[in-house]
Amino acid sequence: MNLTRWKPGFARTCARSRVVSCLAPLAALPLLFACDEGAGPPGTNVAINVAPLVLPSVVGVSYGLVVYNGEPVFSAAGVQTAAVGTVWQKTPVTSGDYGNLGGGDITYIGPCDANTPGGSPNWNYVALVLNQIQVPNNQGSLGTNKEFLDDQFTALTTATPAGDGDADFENPCPSAKPCVLKFQCKENQDVGVSFNLTVMRDANQGFFDIAVNFEDVFCSAKLDTCYPDPDNAGPKSAEAIKLLFGSNGRDETAVAALACTVGPDTATKPIATRLLFTKAQVVCDAATFVLDLSSDAGTGKVATSARAGNEAPYHLQYGLFYGDEQLSCGTVPGAGDLPARDLSCNKVYFNIAVDIAELAAQGLTNCQFFWGATAVEKEDKDTFTAQGRLADKAGVYAGVGFGRAAVGEVPAAGVPLTGAATLGVSSLVCDGNPLNGENFGKQPSAVRTRYLAGDDFSGGNFVTGVKFDYRFDAPDKAVATP
User: Fold this and answer.
1) How many Å separate Cα 15 from the centre of its chain?
2) Cα–Cα distance between 374 and 449 in angstroms, integer?
3) How many Cα atoms sit within 13 Å of 389 on the Cβ side?
4) Is 70 in contact with 62 (CB distance < 8 Å)?
5) Alpha-carbon span 452 to 262, nearest angstrom
6) For residues 134 and 140, what is the distance between their CA atoms, to the nearest angstrom?
7) Comparing 457 with 346, which gets the higher pLDDT?
8) The pTM is what?
9) Are 109 and 33 in contact (CB under 8 A)?
10) E strand or H helix at 462
11) How confident is the model over 220-271, as pLDDT tens digits?
């Protein structure tokens, strides 16, 4: 799903413009708009494809579009500051008026500039904004009837209607970081531009003991080093998680937990969820550990990091816990000789436990955890290549990032495990990081939805060039990608 809020510049006339089409691939009822002033050779089109949103129970989606005749530059507040012209802009462009209603795709026609100030090859740039997602009454968080989903920005608004502080989904392209694709405006030729986007909605699921019904792609994730304080008194009163065994019993342990599903079985089709992972790393001031995620499940695994000189290498103990949950998301009634059968929720999980007490005992300071993951349908051969890269150069896909650099972002900022040394002893971090939530200090969690984009994107709240190094098909162990 793509969101962009555009900032108006001066509008170029149709005198030297060509036709640009904003086209969604599954639009059942396209309503077309075009500049009809006859200002250029006919048949010059660019098709901007906005694919249907992958979200449950979408009633309608509202977008905004803007086309520039040069590369836009946006300030931190999302203001377009470059000396480029706005060819056209339109808001709202709704799936009800310009597309297929609940599918979320749209079709729109407008001009592009085939005689840009920069000259040949006459690059134009299109920005897409998602303004609003409407769902059935009482299934959202905003609006008189709770009919609109809120994102990480509207959830925090104090204006009327005020947000509830808990985002229903993470906006991949907020107004401060518009999503932009470029295309070449050509006379007498049709040009295609595609926005193929997937949004991840929070699953509101706990781990180990809570099950929920799912639709589409949902993930829950966290990284905790302490159990949340039931009285909400802060990290000083929270209890450290102790799971992995050290030399003196159970050690303080960090638990990175991930659970995802691409949706339940249907009455006619079984579904299987595949997880894709980046490398999991623990990066400290003096050492970097790369965890082997293709090992069999269990504890007692060791990663090493060399030291200077002839000293024994630093070592890290970790454990892997993975599988699939045998949860039912409904039942297909029996018919004739066929018995009734449960529909699987297809939820799989992959959890990593790291012995942080052992890190501190070796004097390792400022250790941080990095990992990235996403989920796809196992039979999907089109979204990601066999090498674990996003196949569509104009696509956007949601993932989970444990730390900012977990899915390619810079500068690096992982999930803290140990802190600085105090009186010569490394300190342990006591915190909780739920997906898209707040840590114990009421600051944004270091585990968040991250949006992966194809190489043709620029700007936006996403990263490009991501490679997933493992694939996981439960109940088998993870396998390294080529």
Assistant:
1) 41
2) 10
3) 11
4) no
5) 17
6) 8
7) 346
8) 0.68
9) yes
10) strand 462-464
11) 888 999 887 666 545 556 788 888 888 888 889 999 988 888 878 887 888 8
